Every structure is written in structure tokens, then in C-alpha cells.
From TrEMBL, chains A, B, C, D:
GO terms for biological process: inositol biosynthetic process; phospholipid biosynthetic process. InterPro entries: Myo-inos-1-P_Synthase, Myo-inos-1-P_Synthase_GAPDH, NAD(P)-bd_dom_sf. Belongs to the myo-inositol 1-phosphate synthase family. GO terms for molecular function: inositol-3-phosphate synthase activity. This is Myo-inositol-1-phosphate synthase. It comes from Arthrobacter cheniae. Residues 229-332 form the Myo-inositol-1-phosphate synthase GAPDH-like domain.
């Protein structure tokens, strides 16, 4: 790897989490500290697999975490609740408590649409300067902005969405709120010259004019909606059925979950975005099978997510076969290592000069930006190939890229 | 495809089924007739998928079926029982009954170790000449021999297995039965110069000296043990878990099945071979997880097979997640289209001059000969690539290859 | 049983099915014919169990079937579709086809709210005289009216529901449709002096003034919504958990079904009544656990119903345990024997002089009329005790009770 | 309840656990301490249900725990391991650690067949005097002996089993080991005049001569093999299917478990006893269905037990329906409250003068002694009726019964 960047070339990298005090963010932060300190293995991290051996990425110990949130409950408090719920092991929490406390001190107030008096443009500039301050004060080569905030309800498209000038004008108008919070955060990342990752199904960069601004600013972007559990399994099994010429007639699913995400998704408007994002890939993969899908908020399950799928399939001579799957997991435990993987890979993308949607990161997402590929095995091939190509093409010394 | 063989180049191809009156064989024969006559689609046939569009293969209507069996129950009788059990649709059976009756007239007595007075060499020559007679009397370009007979118990290795001369001598000795029936059938295929496929977990070509003879005779061979249900699903899911860095701790499974296969596997000796063959791939894919596995003969399930798997997985920070799968299918309905696919692809292999184990056909097998690859997605890539390469490299006119 | 009525005492009994051409009705009619003719056992009929040996009930062969429907598709046509879907065995259908054709000739046009010009009172009188004609022309001792028509949407309560005079007046007004069709049918049964059973979750007798009329007319009534599958299982398991002091925290369920019922329940208004009826008992049995529940119309499942339940339970020292159940059945195959049981038991109730809701028949219903008992084992005890008491108290000769 | 014993009348009661340092024993001891101290509810305790309100039983705080074991790992150490495995909450353990340490000091060396030089009679007398010493030194009214030791392999019947004199003679012979350890412990309980409960499938009192001695000594006895999970669920569901006239064709099951019990049952001889005990009731309840059953030792599951059942059922007109259940629980968390319930109820039995097998306690057992009833709902009725009868018939003052 003499010609490529070495870990050292990356310098220190920032991870800026939108929703920094949530379950995913807290788990990722705790895991990063535990892995860096050697208290835990990086189980669940894709970028630690053998196939990435030759790919140069920042080391876990070279990240610094900060972020935005609108909640006052600190990361440490949140972690305590996660320990209490049985998701996080107490001893691990205790061994990295001080790092959590430190990270929490780097959390700044996010954009809360219920409270703002400033214009949305002012808000975005405020958020962007939080990110820049973080970069400068910690001597970071770059800051990866990652949205892991609560899922928002989908919004109606307005003319401003497709016209940069109209959009910019509307954002300056303190009486208007033309963009949802996720898009404001994404815009802030763009303003800060930061790579941006959307781990949620929220609107974010699904505003053409905003995406145009992102591309114009030369940052790599990736999304959308982490593919961690049921949807991931579907993207594994559906292409395999299809490779055998078996025809999916219906694929019905139910999700039970508690926690913060469960509470958010109890809102029928918020859940509708999630349901769409979850089902889009399956529809593509099965070519029009019936796909009823439910998400139920079942608070007594705590941080556990249970997903049941029933797949009705047509086989040889019109025969029927069924596959049922039941998936039980702590949801944030699946998401957190992906947050770390994405941080490493977006550092690579940025160092390599990628701009706009990095379709090869579709591996991580339910609704991939920049790609129509939903098959997990093909996404795996694409990811590995991309990472190897990027890594070998990146010239030494380009590791450190200026952010504005 | 001007340079490659066209369907027409293949002429007529024979399928010679060892176990021709069993459930898989009967279903495959019925399906072939129904598809050829346009009464049914080729759902479940891999070679009918878009990705094989450019691959030249014999058409369904260009096959003729014959075979060996040791049972007196005709294919039509067997099909009636399958209709009765709910597996085969009555109307389909009725529409192709005459073809079944015809095929059954081409079934010859197989090698029955309980009844033979002839030496095993004589038996093999008898079986081989049945195959040759079939080829000649129907004007077939080639005959694909496919073993779908009852699973045998594993046998002890003896010195003759690794020494061609000793083996041939022992075969001529009427007082000895050095090879199990599956190996006699495989040997007969070799003698007849036929491509040979082992769809069962029986010993077959797992006798080094016999395999040497097969390679020497220049025929392509493929096996072993059709990967149709639970094992297939495992080969889909295990690599995907591994691609995410999730660590399988245990993968426990239970199979419930009735029918002829269930009755055979009720014998603890017969089932041991099946269990080994089913588990080998999983052990490779998971690197040493605990894999308890059971096969229960539950006759009231008829032709239905139900497989339950419980997978215990280690994720981020030592957390645990579980996946449970329940697979319910008519087993022979999964196997039969593979029998047709294998017949087509072995015709291609033979036309292309392949000799010995065709590892690229590992896609179809629990325990692939000529390959250590168990990941279904990688097997899919390998299969497609192989088929495309073979198809394009095969010169026009080579479609018809002499069999001795 | 010398003092009680004998089978003979009952004479011939009519079963009048509202929704006579539906799946449940057709299956029940076919089953009755098959059992009567000795072509099938009465598997699934409660009243054939040993514990009912001493209870005197009409024999299967002593029933005659007729009914109302608003569909033109005959019972035989419907049965053919059920055979095609794999639910009904062809040979059985063929052996009783003529009985189905005969029964279908006794089906009269039901009350179709979309088409009526007559007042609702006129409609009810027309339906009632169909029932009376049926009784007289076939020399029946009594006619049991059983509603197995499509599930209706719940209706808003209006003042007429609680005031007999207002209700009767409104019914005579041709410009008004104060009652839903199920209530018109129930009213017709009352007018005909017939025992009435509501196997659906529709409004039916849940109109206090109408129920008052029913009680006044001295007929026994029973309902509501047949407890055949998932809800039945819940009423088995929930009391057993409670007997062990285990606390249900949540009981989440999903139903997948196709067929006519599935299509009807795809209508969000129709399904809401069903969901309420399904959940009421569970809430009682678990004392306020979270019980999210879904019914999905999955037409490719045909007549099959699949129900998945996930139960999260608190045990000793706050520990958690889970039970998951998956139930797969042909729904009408579960309902049909209950229709026969209810016909026999309502004949007993009528012969015994029962009036109004027979709570002891709660065994059969999701939402029992005349009882708050939802535990299946206690309902079993109640049913058996009631039947034995009725049977022994019924004097000989009272078997035949006049209907007006 | 003026005539019956009050809690006070029982005085202090001893619980003497054979296998006192095992998982079940440790959990029961911890739970008793936690409930007595008000740190936890008695969730999972049958005797705390409303229906037992009028039944007089010893209070939780009036028990003292001691026992035998052959392991040197203390209860507190065992509890720590259970906390580590995620089964026991840390804070609860910490709050009752001192009580566990105290209880552990009352544990005496059990009978270890691998080490004994004494005759079995001497061993039994040594164990019996441990029990008597415990009773006397803690001023206990009575001591309930409860076997929760490791499952033993079944033993061959010998002539001594049916002849008291031969048995007693053999026991005095130091060169013979005619009884398995569980029977020595049961004999010790008899010698100590203690009520005896067998929570395991081991031989214990299944030695007719030994049981004769037990009856002769006038103590109540109860067993066998705690019915906590899968078997319990079967005893709930099977009778309910039967009440509906549905016919079970096969009931296949698989158990996955780790922990000490899993390790013990990995021994094919030990597991055979367990499998028999688990299946006997199901066979009775289903009348001869096929019931394949497996228990797999899956150590990575820790204390979790997962049981999967697949039930194939014949319904109306020969149709098939299936029920699948998946049960996931911490096994000892199910057993521990039953240990407490049995201690309370055996105190009642003893105070009431019951002798020999108390069939009404069949509620708690897979293989009930003194009863052929396996239906859980009927067992519930029997238990409640028995407890109420005993409680009201017990005269005041009889609470304290002499033990020899
Ligand atoms: N497996 C997974 O966990 C998974 C998978 C895919 C997607 N996601 C998505 O990740 C997101 C986070 O999930 P979670 O379980 O951590 O949820 P959570 O409710 O625990 O955390 C969300 C956090 O976002 C904060 N927040 C809300 N609005 C904000 C705003 N405008 N600005 C800044 N912060 C804001 C909240 O205060 C909270 O701390 C959700 O959108 C979820 O759908 C999670
Ligand atoms: N999904 C599947 O169905 C599947 C998958 C993988 C492997 N297989 C294997 O395919 C084989 C066939 O399965 P099936 O369900 O058709 O079984 P089956 O019992 O219905 O048929 C087996 C047939 O083999 C015949 N036979 C037995 N010994 C023979 C001999 N020495 N020579 C010739 N014929 C002989 C029998 O008479 C019978 O007709 C089995 O070995 C099975 O393990 C099936
Ligand atoms: N396990 C079960 O099958 C089950 C259990 C409980 C309740 N139910 C209820 O039983 C009913 C019948 O179920 P199904 O599967 O037979 O449905 P279906 O759709 O096959 O049959 C319903 C029949 O009712 C007829 N109908 C509609 N409106 C009518 C009216 N006003 N008057 C007379 N006939 C009318 C329809 O034409 C149709 O023939 C449904 O309400 C269902 O919810 C069924
Ligand atoms: N749900 C349940 O947990 C459940 C249900 C039914 C039956 N059981 C039975 O309860 C028993 C205990 O289960 P566990 O999970 O606590 O097992 P465990 O292995 O954790 O504990 C068994 C204990 O018995 C001790 N022991 C072994 N032989 C002994 C002897 N001769 N004398 C005294 N002590 C001896 C061992 O040292 C160990 O401490 C098993 O037999 C099990 O089959 C448990
Ligand atoms: Na896309
Ligand atoms: Na009620």
C-alpha cells in the first residue's frame, strides 16, 4: 500500500451525529470508545472483515465524536437506560463512561422546528459553524456528518424543492419553514463542506435543489435509511429466490419494537415514511408481489426489535412453498457498527475526491441513493470493489482534504 | 449466438434417472412433459432465467426420459399417489399421463444388491448397455445419467477404493460386493460414456479409483446431494451474516418429512450420510459454530418437508441476535426443476468437452464436487459465468459428441 | 336417556344460512352431506366428542339446508372454486355434488341494501316468509337461522336502536335504512320464530330494541363471531399463563388471509369490526396488555389463513419470556364443523325452551353474547354442563316445538 | 379461615434442596430472599393468585433454605455466573447476596456415587441426619425436601426394587450400589420424616419398595419432573384441540438449551430419561400421534431455553392444519417459582396429614405421580380444589407436625 494513504495520512477524523443523544448514536459512541480501548472486538463492523485488509481507512482510535441533539438527556444517562433495558453490558458502560461524558460535552443544540425564531438559513449556518468549530478545535482532517435523528414524517413537495434560487430565498425568510429539520441538518453539512450520511428515512437530501447544492460543494453523500434487520434479510433472500426461478407471490411483514424509535413510529405520519422506505427495495426485488407491512410500537419490548416475515412462493408446476423468518435483535446494536463503518468509508470517499451520492455504499441502506441495486450480495461485491479501487487510486498525501 | 451450438445442434438428449420411479424422478418427468407441451411454465428452473438468455442449451422438448429402478410401482402409479397426497395437481397429471406411461416403459431393472448373483462388473455392464440401448434406439446425441435413488448408508473405505486395478479385479469377483449400488450406477454411466450427476448423498463417485476411471473416460461429472431447501437457505444467509461481520455461534436445525425419502431416512445409518452432507457446508461457512441437526420421519406430513432453523448470532459489543426460519415445501417440487436444469447444463458441459467434476455446478449441491465454495451468491456468479463461457467457446457442430 | 328426547324426537331440522353461497356455508353444506352419507368422519365437530355421548341432539342426516344470499354464484360453483384452491378434496365434492345442487335450489335472494325499494320491514317479512316456507315445505320441526354472510362495517348507534316503537316505525319507512343487513336478517329469524346464531362480527342483534323483540318472541339466540383460529388459541393460552401467575405484557398478532373473507376485510371499515371483536376477549384475559393486531388481505394465500402471534411475558423476578405461535389453516374448514355443532345445539336449546342469549355457547364465539367468560377451558366446562343439563331436563316429546 | 391453620400456625418451614448449588436452586433461593424482603413481586408463583386467597400457606418470609450438593461452587458464585449470563439482574443479586451466602453455609455434601466408601444405607442416614440437624438447629416445624439435582440416566430394574427386605439388605452392603443417587436422597427424606418432592426425571421414588417405605413413614410425596415450558404448553394446547374434535397426527419438538442442564443432557443416557418423561403426557393427550423430540445442548444459549413445536392436525373433511410454537425463556426462572409453590403446598399437605403421592400436585409435573391427568386446565381445577379442601379441613394447631 505504499502509494495509497495510510491510516496516519487520515489524521484525526470527526463524526458529527445528528441525534447524538439517541440510542443509535450513544451505542455507536460507546462502541467506538470500547473498541479503541481494546475492551471489545469490532464484531459487526464490515470494514474489519478480511476482504477490507488492503483498504486503507482511518483507525477507530482516530475518531472524535460530537453532534447535535434537541434532547437534554445526556449520552451517559441514555446509556444507563440502555444498560437498564438489558441492551448494553454494565461493565462496558462503566469502562467507557468518561469518554461518553466527554463526547456529550461536544453535543450542541440541534435545529428544533418547534422553537426556532431564526430563519432556516440562519439555523443552518449556526449548525454549520458548530461543525466547523468542532473540526478546528480538535484539529480534525474532516468531519463526517451522520443523521441518526428521529424519523420525520414525509413532507409535501413544493416548487422551492426544485429551484435553488427559490429555495435559498425561502430559507432566508424567517416566517417560512420550507424544509424539514433533516434537510436543514443536511444543508448545514454542505455548508460546512462535510461528507454527509443519512441513516434515516427522513427527507434530508431528497430535495433536488438541495442535492444540487451538495454536489456543487463537492462533498460525497450517502443514504438512506440504515438496512440493519428485516429489510437486510429480505435483500439477502429475495435475490436468491429469484436466482432459482422461484416466484414470490407475497411477502408480508410485521415489526414489533419499543424504545425511542418505537415511540416515534407510533405516529402514523412518521411511520409512513419508514414503511415506504422499507418496502421499496422489496418491490423492486420481487417485481410486484403483495407486500403488506406493519410497524407496531410495543414498549414492553424495550430496545428489542422482533420482525416476522411470511413469504408465499410459487414453485415448480404451480406448487406453493412458504418461508417464515423471525428476527430478534437489539436494533441499535445492528445500526451502531454501520455508523462506524460509514464514518470510515466516507472518510475514504472524501479523501478520494468522491462527490455526490456514492452508490457503492448502497450496501448499508434500505433505499440507496445513487443506485438501484437492492441485492445484498451484489451490493457486497460493489462495496468491496469500490473500496479497493478508491483505496488504490488515492494518492499519498491527499488524505487530508480541506473543508471550508 | 451464431458461433455457438443452437438448440438444434444438441439434437435429442436422453435423461437416464437412477431411481426413475421415485418421487423426484416422477415429478421431473411429469414436469418435463407438462412444460414441453405448454401446460406449465418452467418456474423453478434456473436455466430459464434472463441471465441464461444467451446460453445455448437443449430445449425441454428435446429430452427423452428413461432410467433404472428396483421398484415395480410404475411412474403413473407413483404420480397418482403424489396427486392423492396433494402435491401434484390432478389435471396436470391427467394431461401428461400418457407420457408418463411411455417413460415408464423405458425403465429397466436397476442394480439391487439384495438380489444379484452376477458379479458387480457384470451388473455395471448390464446397466451400461441399458443406457447405450436407450441412446441408440432413440437416436440421442448423449444421455445424462442422474442419480435420484434412495439415499444409501455411508460405507467403510477399503483399499480397493484407491487402486484401480484392485478395484476392477474385485468387481469381477462374483463373491464380493465392494461397491455400494450408487457407485455401480456411476460406474455404469462411465462405461456408457455418459455425463453423470449425483443428486443424492450416497457414495457414488466418492471412490477415488472410480473417479479416476470417470475422468479417464472423459465425461463431465457433477454432485453431490441436491441443495433444495434448508441447506440452500443456509448457504444464502450464512455468507450474508459473515459479510456484515456478524458471528454465528450456533445454527440448530430440525427437518420433518414424510414420503419415501422420510421412510428411507428413518434408518439411522441412511440418515447419517445425509446429516453429514447437510452440515458440511454450514460448518465451512460459519467456521465452527455448533450445528445440531435432526431429520425426523413424520409420515403424516406426506410429501411436505418442514425445516426449522434457530441461529444464535454474536453482534456488536457481544450482543446476541437470533434468526429463526421455517421452510415448508413439497421437497420433490424443489428437486425436480434442478434435475431438468442439471440435464441441460450437463449437455452443455459435455458438448463443451468438460471432463471430471464441474465445480461450477456447485450451485445445485449441498456438498459440491470440485469446489469448496458454499456461498450461494458466489455459486450463482460462478454458474452463470461458467455457462456463458462454455456456451461461447463451444464451436458449432460440436453439439453432438460421440458416446461409446 | 329414556326420559329425554331422542334423535327421532327432533324430527327434521332446517339450517337456514345467511350467506349460503359463501365459503363457510358451502363447506358446511358439503360436509353435512358427506358425513350423512358416511363419506367422511365428523372430525372437528365438538358434539361428536365422547363427552356429548349422553346428550341428545339431531343426527346429521336429519338436517335440511337452505338460505339467503345476494350472489348468483351457486354453491356448486363455489365448491368448485374451493376444490381448485386446494381446500376441498375433489372426490368428496363429486360424491356430494347433487346434494349441493339441491341445497342451492333452496337459496332465496337475501336482503341487498344496494338494491331494495321495499321498506326494511317489508324486506324482513319477505325473508321471514322464505324461512317459514322452507320449514313448512320440508316438514321441519324447526329452522336454525345462522348468519355466515360477509362481515359488515360497524354502524353508528341511533336513538331507534333502544326504542322498539321508534325502531318499528323507522323500519316501515321505505325512505329509511335504519338497520344494517345483518340486523334485518336477524329480525327475519325472530319474525319466523327461529333460533338465531350470528357467526359474524356484524351488528345483528347488537341493537337493544331488536334483541328485546327476539327475547319477547321466545327464541334462543347465540353469537357472536366464530372463534375458530387465532382468537381461539389465545383463549386457550392466555388463561393458562394466568393460572401460573405469569403476566402478559404484550400480545401482538398478524393475520394473513385471502378468499372472500380476505377481500371483504381489505375494506378498512369492515375490518375494524373484526379487529374489535377479535381483541375484546384477549384484553379481558390479559388485563390490559398491549395488543396490536392486523388483518391483511393476501389473495395469493387463497383460502388459507396464517396467523402469527408474539407474546411478551413477565416471569419470576422480572424476567422476560416469549411465546410465538404460527397457525396455518383453511379457515372455512374450521368454521364449518362449528356451524353444524351450533345447529345441533340450538335445536337442543330450542327444544329445551331456552330464550335469548345462550351464554353457554360462548365456547364458539370470539365475543360471546350472554357471557363474559373467554377462557376456552372454562367455556368447555360450561358448554358440556349446559348440554347435559338441557338434555336431561328436556321431557320426551317436547322435541318438536312450534314455530310461528 | 378461623378453623384452619394461619400462617403463624406453620411456624418456620425448611426447604432442603438436593442440588442446592444448581441453577434452579440458586434462583429459587435468591427469589425467596428478594420476595421476602419486598424487592420483588412473586410473579410466576401460582399460590399467589387470587384463587388461593382463602388457602392458608406459609409466608415466604417463614422459610429457611439449606440443602445438599456435590459441587464446591457456592450459591453466590453460581448466582454471579447467572448474572453474567444475563438471566439474573445484578442489582437484585447484590441486594440479597448476604442471604445467599448464609444459605450456602447450610449446604452439606451430598451423596456422590463416585466417591463413597460408606454403604448406601450409611450414606442415607448421613443425609437424613443433615436434614434433622437443619430442622432442629433452626427450630423448623418441618423440612420440605426438594430434588433439583442434575438429571440422572435411567437405571435397570433389579429384584431389590420390589422387595423391601432385599432392598434394605442391599443398601447395608458397602460393596453394592443398588440405588441411584436420587433414590438415596429420597430415602434420606423418608428417614428424616420429611415431605419429598422430585422436580427431576431421575429414578427417585420410582422404586416400588422405596415408595412403600415412604408411604409407611406417613410423609406426602410429589413428582415428577417440573412442567415448566414446552411440556406445559403442550398440556395446555393438546386438550383444547381435543375438545374441538381436532385430531393431532404428529407433534414434533426440538429443545435447545445451554447451562448446566444442557451440559448434563448432552449425555445420551441422561437425556433418554428426560425425553421419556417429556413425551409420556403428550402421548396420553394425543392418543398415539407421532412425537419425535430432541434436546440439544447449545452452550452459547447460556441459560436460555428455546423450544420449537410443529403440530400437524387433521380437521374437518380430512383437511390439515398446523400450529407451530416457539418458546424462549430462562428455564430456571420458570422452575424457581414452582419450587417455592411446591414448598408451600407440601407444607399444607403435611400439615393436613397427606401420605404418599399427592396427585393434585400433578399441575407442576411432566410425569405426575399419583395421577393420570395431563390436561393443564383440569390439573388447575384439581389443584385449586385440593388446596381449598385441605386448607379448610386442617384443624387449628395441626400446623406443627412432628418429624422424627
Ligand atoms: N437499526 C436501527 O436502529 C435503525 C435502522 C435504520 C434506521 N434507523 C433510524 O435511526 C434513527 C435513530 O434511531 P434511534 O433508535 O437512535 O432513535 P432515538 O429515538 O433513540 O434517537 C433519536 C434522537 O434524535 C434526536 N432528535 C430528534 N429530532 C432532532 C433534531 N431535529 N435534531 C437533532 N436531534 C434530533 C432525539 O432527541 C433523539 O435523541 C431513527 O430515525 C431510525 O429510524 C435506525
Ligand atoms: N428436495 C429433494 O427432494 C431432494 C434433495 C436432495 C436430495 N434428494 C435425494 O434424492 C433422492 C430421491 O428422493 P425421493 O424423494 O425421490 O425418494 P423416493 O424414495 O421417492 O425415490 C427413490 C427411488 O429410488 C429407487 N431405488 C432405490 N434403490 C435403487 C437402486 N439401487 N437402483 C435404482 N433405483 C433405486 C426406489 O425404488 C425409489 O423409486 C434421495 O436420495 C434424496 O435424499 C432429494
Ligand atoms: N374461520 C372462519 O371462516 C370464520 C370465523 C369467524 C367468522 N367468520 C365469518 O363468517 C363470514 C363468512 O365467511 P366466508 O369466508 O364464508 O365469506 P365469503 O365471502 O366466502 O361468503 C360470504 C357470503 O355472504 C354473502 N352475502 C353478503 N351480503 C349478504 C347479505 N346481505 N345477505 C345474504 N348474503 C350475503 C356473500 O354473497 C357471500 O356468498 C364472514 O363474516 C366471516 O368473518 C368466518
Ligand atoms: N425449567 C427447569 O429449569 C427445569 C424443569 C424441569 C426439571 N428441571 C430439572 O431440575 C434439575 C436442576 O436443573 P438445573 O438447571 O438447576 O441444573 P444444574 O446443572 O444447574 O444444577 C444441578 C445441581 O445438582 C448438583 N448435583 C448433581 N448430583 C448431585 C447429587 N448426587 N447430590 C446433590 N447434588 C447433586 C450439581 O452439582 C448441580 O449444582 C435438572 O434435573 C433438571 O432437569 C429443571
Ligand atoms: Na435508489
Ligand atoms: Na360478552
Amino acid at each position: 500500500m505504499s502509494a495509497g494513504p495510510t491510516s496516519h495520512d487520515y489524521g484525526k477524523t470527526g463524526i458529527w451525529l445528528i441525534g447524538a443523544r439517541g440510542s443509535v448514536a450513544t451505542t455507536a459512541t460507546m462502541g467506538l470508545a470500547a473498541i479503541s480501548a481494546g475492551f471489545a472486538d469490532a464484531t459487526g463492523c464490515v470494514t474489519e472483515q478480511a476482504v477490507f485488509d488492503g483498504v486503507d481507512l482511518p483507525g477507530f482510535a482516530d475518531f472524535v465524536v460530537g453532534g447535535h441533539d434537541i434532547s437534554d438527556v445526556s449520552m451517559a444517562k441514555r446509556a444507563e437506560a440502555l444498560v437498564e433495558s438489558g441492551m448494553l453490558p454494565l461493565h462496558l458502560f462503566e469502562s467507557v463512561r468518561s469518554q461518553l461524558v466527554e463526547a456529550d460535552q461536544r453535543v450542541r443544540p440541534g435545529y428544533d422546528p418547534r422553537q426556532e425564531s431564526e430563519s432556516q438559513a440562519e439555523a443552518a449556518r449556526r449548525l454549520a459553524s458548530d461543525i466547523s468549530d468542532f473540526r478546528i478545535s480538535h484539529g480534525l482532517s474532516r468531519v463526517i456528518v451522520l443523521d441518526v435523528a428521529s424519523t420525520e414524517a414525509p413532507v409535501e413537495t413544493v416548487p422551492e424543492f426544485t429551484d435553488i434560487d427559490m429555495l435559498l430565498a425561502a430559507l432566508e425568510d424567517p416566517s417560512r419553514s420550507v424544509l424539514p429539520p433533516s434537510s436543514i441538518s443536511a444543508y448545514a453539512a454542505v455548508l460546512a463542506g462535510s461528507p454527509y450520511v443519512c441513516f434515516t428515512p427522513s427527507t434530508a437530501l431528497n430535495v433536488p435543489a438541495l442535492y444540487e447544492l451538495a454536489v456543487g460543494s463537492g462533498v460525497p453523500t450517502a443514504g438512506q435509511d440504515g438496512k440493519t434487520g428485516q429489510t437486510w434479510l429480505r435483500s439477502v433472500v429475495a435475490p436468491a429466490l429469484s436466482a432459482r426461478g422461484l416466484r414470490v407471490l407475497s411477502w408480508a411483514g410485521t415489526n414489533l419494537l419499543g424504545g425511542g424509535d418505537g415511540a416515534t413510529l407510533a405516529d402514523p405520519r412518521a411511520v409512513s415514511g419508514k414503511l415506504q422506505s422499507k418496502n421499496r427495495g422489496l418491490r423492486e426485488l420481487t417485481g410486484g408481489a403483495a407486500t403488506p407491512l406493519h410497524i407496531d410500537n410495543v414498549q414492553d419490548l424495550g430496545e428489542t426489535k422482533v420482525a416476522w416475515d411470511h413469504i408465499n412462493i410459487e414453485g415448480f408446476l404451480g406448487s406453493r412453498l412458504t418461508l417464515q423468518t423471525t428476527w430478534t435483535a437489539f436494533d441499535s446494536m445492528l445500526a451502531a457498527p454501520m455508523v462506524l463503518d460509514l464514518s470510515r468509508l466516507m472518510a475514504l470517499a472524501h479523501a478520494s475526491g468522491e462527490k455526490g451520492h456514492v452508490g457503492a455504499l448502497g450496501f448499508f441502506f434500505k433505499d440507496p441513493w445513487g443506485s438501484n441495486e437492492h441485492s445484498f450480495s451484489r451490493q457486497t461485491d460493489n462495496l468491496v470493489e469500490w473500496a479497493q479501487t478508491m483505496s488504490s487510486s488515492t494518492a499519498a498525501g491527499t488524505g487530508i482534504v480541506d473543508q471550508q
